[in-house]
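Human: I'm a chemist; would you kindly supply sequence and structure tokens for a protein?

Assistant:
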Amino acid sequence: MPKDLQKRTSNPQAVPLGQFIKEVLAQQPSFASKPLGEWKDLVGESVARHCAPRSLKNGRLVVVARDSVWKHHLELNKEALVRRINERWGRRVVAEIRVRVGEIEEVSAILDANYKRLQKIKPKKAPKRKKKPLLRKLTDAEKEFIASLKDKDLQKMATKLLRLTHEEPTEFLKSSP
């Protein structure tokens, strides 16, 4: 595990779990945007202009070289390159390197699809709870009105409805039977 991650994970301050997982996964080679680091720093600027990493999967790094001369150059130095990459991560990230001849275009720094998946992770928001309406106490006139109702279900509904309203009792309640 890289040292900067160890420092962050030992921090006693609370970090949201989703953010923590995203940070930990970003430090893993298969989830990093540049699992090899900066390609120019690894191979040198002149080699980087003529060779580019294409993919890193299951410990196999595929590198595309502009022509057979550059392919031969990488074939001769691939053990040193494997060692350099693995030393950078502190463990075995690349087990083998395969070099192919092909066109070198502007290659995306993202070698692994896992990185794209990691970037799509969005923190989930807690569902908003519905606020219960404030219930008020019934006035004596409202209690009398409810007591005058003969049906028990109607009494329950009237009680609920009156407690939900925020208005003062109306003339309707004062003049009812």
